[in-house]
Design goal:
Chain lengths: 246, 316
Amino acid sequence: MLNLTNIELTINGKKILHDLNLEVRKGEIHSILGANGTGKSTLSSVIMGLNGYQVKGGQILLDGEDITNLPIHERAKRGITLGWQEPARFEGLTVGEYLKISKKFSGDGFLSPRECLLKVGLAPELYISRAVDGTLSGGERKRIELASVLAMKPKLAILDEPDSGIDSLSIDHIVDVIKTFSRTGSAVLLITHHEEVATIADRASSLCDGTVVKTGEPAAVAKFFRNHCEECPHVNQPAEEVIHNG
Amino acid sequence: MVDYSKEFEAIAKAYGASGGNPNDLFDKKTASLVVSHHKILFQNSIPGVNISGEEIENGVKAKIVVKPGKMVKDPVHLCFGVIPAEGVQEIVSEFEIGEGAKVNFIAHCSFPNAIKLRHIMDSKIRVGRNAEMNYAETHYHGKDGGIEVLPVTKAVVEEGGKLRSEFKLIKGAVGKLDLDYEGTLEKDAVCEFDTKVYGKGDDKVLVKESLFLNGENSRGLAKSRIVATDRCVSEVIGEAVGNAPNARGHVDCVEIIKGKEARVSAVPKLLVVDDRAKLTHEAAIGSVDKKQVETLMARGLDEDEAVDVVVKGMLR
């Protein structure tokens, strides 16, 4: 479904992603594991086509169509969307209105905004009229972001650390939500630091220094990550610094 | 006898266009004042809310008194409009909200045909001890920018009182707006000013919101949300003076610029006189937040649609 081939991304003269190859299959949950600064969030920005993340080389195909140079909204219209790690806040826009924007693309017959809120563990009557602004806690905002992505019924949901900033008691619930995407036919590209979350995937890839170093069965990739990345000099260093330092 | 029926109709239509319900305007159960140019078309007092209007040379002088302890159930409706394209309308108003009373005002100002028009609002407000006044004013202008809007408010909020005032001018051309709101707060008083303006064409927008936190534990917020497009020039001055122990004031300004020829500026003026007072300010001026736009684009909106959603939300 989604194929990234030989992706190269350079920002301010520094190579951030290079020789990156990745395949996300239809309907699968695909985890991305990697230490801080290895390019996980950058990868999600590249796939979504965010400003400043236009690739220098390589190709992105969605169902065989080249979307490498398409703007964000054209990629969204083709079924790709992104749940941000730190979602934006909107003054004056209610949760209901925010979800309805996504709902336009899934159409009738799919989950309503209220049902999407229920899926992420929020009571619709308490949230539907609230503004998506600073009055929401970080955890509430992240759940609303998941509901918004869910409401779109995307072909591919890129979820950038949906489990960060969520209390440990709620992690199981977030895992359920991620599985809901899969049940409703969406593929998920799941970026996470939690190994137990990563292993719910059908497949996983490990990222190091801006490239995919291993893809396979999640437990095996998690083991590879544990064995190699803890000793790796790239851990906790932004990839660009690693590259810069030689 | 002068037949005002056509004027009634025109004002009611303009009131409807500005978001109000024309039926509320002439409802005898609610307190209201309806002014067309310098004529009072309708005024209605109810028990506990006395409205006395008087026609003056270029407008109307009105005194609105809410009796102490009166909890006014339905909003008081105020409607000021000018149907002709030219002229001057001056509204001199005085609000007296008695001790412990609570009242909401909904004001609409409609100038659908303005080409060379001045609308002057000169208001004095006194919110009594532990009283609460909420005032929401919405403007509706035509597409021509030939109007000057000059609202000046001097408010005193007595001990434990609350005043919330919203000014909204987002429909039609602004023309020239020179808004000057000032709140003086006594002990435990609360005052919030919230101004929302959508400037287009050659509009000039000047907003000044001032808070004088004179009473212990007083709380003030001067908030403004301005969008400047085309060649619009906007300047916001948010002022707070902390004169008393534990007084807290905050100036919050967001101005969005769209277009190469528009200009926006923000000037916060904070003065702490009492060393136990605390004042803060935040200002974000410039283009629409990139992350907000990209988030909405990732839901399938194109860039213009996304900006529109952000702007409309902010000005709501």
